Write the structure tokens for this entry.
Amino acid sequence: MAMDKPVIIAGGTGLIGRALTRALRAQHVPVVVLTRRPEGQRSQPGLTFVRWNPDDPAALQATLAGAAAVVNLMGANISQGRWTARRKAELYRSRVATTRALARAVAALPADARPRVFLQGSAVGYYGDRGEEPITEETPAGDDFLARLCVDWEAAAQPVAQAGVRLVVLRTGVVLSREGGALPLMLRPIRWFVGGPLGDGRFFLPWIHIADHVAAMQFLMEHAAASGPFNLTAPNPVRQREFVRQAARLLHRPAWLPAPMFALRLALGELATALTASQRVLPARLQQLGFRFRFPTLEAALEDLLA
């Protein structure tokens, strides 16, 4: 990748976007962050914040022209609140409509101004609940709301590939970071001595340390043979009850109080089913390309994050 050309990160103020920005800047790669709220963000040498406005395609194309790569991480938080009809519409719009606008802007650029690669966010929710079945990138899509959302989300990026730009789809699992995201929420009941499995805790939890997620994105960005979907999960998924057990051990807390499924469904509605879907996801294609995980096991990841 040409170091004098910027990487454009759409949704770069989120957890993953901030971590990727730090990693790229550490390698002296200029970064432009597209965000709905650039106010309060401080641009500095090598880092610029630009307002995301999908209704102004000319301005968007001007921002994208000449970039080395585009990374699309936009999307409202899936687990924030019950999935009402209005919330589902927002989850859909924030992913599919924004991806469609970004992909069309890239495709409309002159060939010599297009990025070499476009990294498109997605999620392991693509696969739905698969029970004990090992999941690779060859596994077909599920048929629940989240799976259908991911299918449409990925499809919205196809104009990029049709324009001849290398398209990489990131099917991300639960990203573990001490700076935010799912991990602090998952640890809170354990810290308060009320931790335990969700339901029977037998469902598989596809997780990845944020350092490995960022390293995988950079690996795929720079690997010319990488295109299509990639599972961004650690190679050793665990059952949710095992996650609770290991976290409780490291925090020196008990983990004895299960959360009954009926209570979860009462509190969260349809979201409860999505949060307890069993997904034994394996990063098959990532490993085939030779990517090496720094934190391949949950024990190693939690020891680093809880140190």
Notes: The CA atoms of residues 190 and 273 lie 22 Å apart. The chain has a mean pLDDT of 93. The two ends are 35 Å apart (CA to CA).
